[in-house]
Amino acid sequence: MISTRSTIVGTDAVADAARAVPHEIYLGPDGEAVKPVISRSSTWQDLRSLDLRPRMRVLQVGTGSGYPAALMAHIVGPGGHVLTIDPDEALTSRAGDLFAAHGHRAIAATGNGLAGHPGRAPYDRIVVAGTPAAIPAAWIDQLAPGGVLVTGCSVSDLPGAYAVAHIVKTPADDLHVTVHAGRYPFMQSPVVPSHVTVVTATDQPGYYLASASDDHQTTTAFLTLLRAGTAGPWPGPPGEFLDFKHWLLARQPRGLFTAVTERGEGVGIGDRAPSNFGLAARSDGPPEAVMITPTHLVTHPQESPTWARFLDLMDEWRAEASRTTHELDAVIWRDGDSYHVRLND
């Protein structure tokens, strides 16, 4: 007997829209008509974070398959409008044809999504399934009072420090931001500030280590140590990695760095061991480095003072009930034509 029970979880507006808009229309029978593929469940989760309601005006930056825009159009109804914009004319043309063919009240426009779409502003919701180098002021300017912007963002000057920002524009035009663990694809090449030192491996340019130190030699030594270091299992559930990483980025302990090595993308601390029985400055001793990735705790040398300090930091985080990313303080400020988001301890 074939079950007719829906596999869509929930009874809210997003679930109702998902039942009304067959995903096969947009994603294809194998769910891979447009790449990169965002799973249906992730799409539903993202839309739930928007708290969409009838009659809302929505701008989506990054058209993709067109499926999210069709869902949003169903939720906001005939009294609202959804416009999706993308620089890829093939994507917007495909989505526009599907909207028209199936009666989904969304509009697809070809253009630079970083500039938003002022012709239909202001918007009650702006959703961006990508990470810009910095948040364009155009998005904030086109957001209606009381509106919400959800976008990927950088939360540190160090490379690899990305998350999802949920920005609310109050009726008084103030901005409140909450940061959530997650990552969207890059919309632009990341910009590394001049005060950040980035070194790459000579044999693998994709491997790097970045720190706020201006000591290029020591930063290079940290990368070398990590590649040769001892790798044990990450001491916690895999899902906790991003929350601990973001807590470290907010805390900014001495010697903080981000890196990519054979063991994956991670965050850690580096220092120099005391020499002359601890009587000399730490900068005179041999380098030590410790890093975590989603799967490993990498250290070299083993059981060093830096390793012990790193474990103390992890204990501090545990003592704070393993604070999640969205429980950390975050600030947002304008710098010329863009906004920046940072985490605070």
TrEMBL record:
Coiled-coil ranges per UniProt: none
Keyword Cytoplasm in record: yes
Pfam families assigned: PCMT (PF01135)
Predominant subcellular localization, coarse grouping: cytoplasm
InterPro entries membership: PCMT, SAM-dependent_MTases_sf
Main EC class the enzyme belongs to: transferase
Subcellular location, record wording: Cytoplasm
Keyword terms, alphabetized: Cytoplasm, Methyltransferase, S-adenosyl-L-methionine, Transferase
Family of this protein: Belongs to the methyltransferase superfamily. L-isoaspartyl/D-aspartyl protein methyltransferase family.
Protein name: Protein-L-isoaspartate O-methyltransferase
Biological source species: Promicromonospora aerolata
